[in-house]
Amino acid sequence: MAKKENPFGAAGWTPDRISSLDGKTFVITGANSGVGFEATRILLTKGAAVVMLNRNAAKSAAALSELTNQFGADATVSFIRMDLAELDSVREAATEVLSQAPKIDALICNAAISQTATRKLTVDGFESQLGVNHMGHFVLSGLLYERIEASSGRMVMVGSNAYKMGKKKIHFDDLNFDEKYSPWHAYNQSKLAQMMFGYELQRRVEAAEKSVVAQVCHPGASRSNLISGDVSMTNKILIRFIKPFFQSAERGAWPEVLCAAEADVKSERLYGPTKRADTAGPVGENEIAAHALDREAAARLWQVSEEKTGLTWSP
Ligand SMILES: NC(=O)c1ccc[n+]([C@@H]2O[C@H](COP(=O)([O-])OP(=O)(O)OC[C@H]3O[C@@H](n4cnc5c(N)ncnc54)[C@H](OP(=O)(O)O)[C@@H]3O)[C@@H](O)[C@H]2O)c1
């Protein structure tokens, strides 16, 4: 199939398209590392205020110190502790965000874990990748929704090319992989879930004629700390060999900054790099595989997410 023309020109979208984000507030998850850290840096460069929601206080202090070294002691960046693997922590962090941020111009759901070696359950009983990557963000999004709507803000889901690999479906009959756990299939499912949630949110916001913009993107293959820590030795070795060929984490951050701040975004799009099987290169629009736009599955996922997290919400 012929590739679509890049709507941002042959060089693709770059942060140069944004002149100033002065007076705007961005809330981003998993911003002490990798793509989220670089997105925070870009937003600060444009004059925005950024609230980082991270799980690790020491790593966050190091990230804050690097940012204040670059932007000065009065850099408009702060940190609230939040562990997406514990819904109580998500609820506490959301309360803190609402008390600190009178408006939210964009929430970027960026944090994730990938390839967890063995099947683990979060405190709330979800397979860890589904729990952190989707369920935690589902609850955070619901708890911050009203403030985002009051701010005519945006909600950005950071997906992955992994959504179009493996089983390409939500395992409604075995969400937690009780039967046969595979780190890869569990990651694929969690990223597909995030993306389906993003498109369903977009449809609901538009149907309800709300002034919220929901977008979905992915960073391609970017050098970050993903696939480290609790992953198999095989994956550790594999990532060590292939990572040098990845693009920088800064380039990986561009699609999420685009979704959070670019004026000219459209509905039912997947923003990401457009070369080398959408893993690198100019940022533009990627083809969306049909299963990510399955409306029936997305509506079911929303309902199941409400039931399992105990939070019922909709635009
Ligand atoms: N890099 C790639 O090639 C690639 C490809 C496709 C998609 N992505 C997506 O890009 C996004 C950013 O990932 P990255 O590549 O920048 O990886 P990264 O460097 O590992 O960053 C992930 C961030 O998520 C945080 N996180 C993990 N578990 C958390 C939890 N339970 N609660 C709160 N925060 C948590 C991490 O915190 P800690 O530092 O405490 O672990 C870290 O700040 C993810 O959504 C990922 O799925 C990345």
Report on the architecture of this protein.
This protein is an alpha/beta fold. It has one domain: NAD(P)-binding Rossmann-like Domain (Rossmann fold). Helix content is about 40%, strand content about 15%. It contains 8 helices and 8 strands, in the order E-H-E-H-E-H-E-H-E-H-E-H-H-E-E-H. The strands form 2 sheets. It has a 6-stranded parallel sheet with strand order 3-2-1-4-5-6, with helices on both faces. Strands 7-8 form a two-stranded antiparallel ribbon. Strand 1 (about 25-30), helix 1 and strand 2 (about 50-55) form a beta-alpha-beta unit. Helix 3 runs parallel beside helix 4. The longest helix has 25 residues, at about 185-205. The protein starts with about 25 loop residues before the first strand and ends in a 6-residue tail after the last helix. Bound molecules: NADP nicotinamide-adenine-dinucleotide phosphate. NADP nicotinamide-adenine-dinucleotide phosphate binds near residues 219 and 226.
List keywords for this structure.
315 residues; alpha/beta; Rossmann fold; two-stranded antiparallel sheet; 8 strands; 40% helix; binds NADP nicotinamide-adenine-dinucleotide phosphate
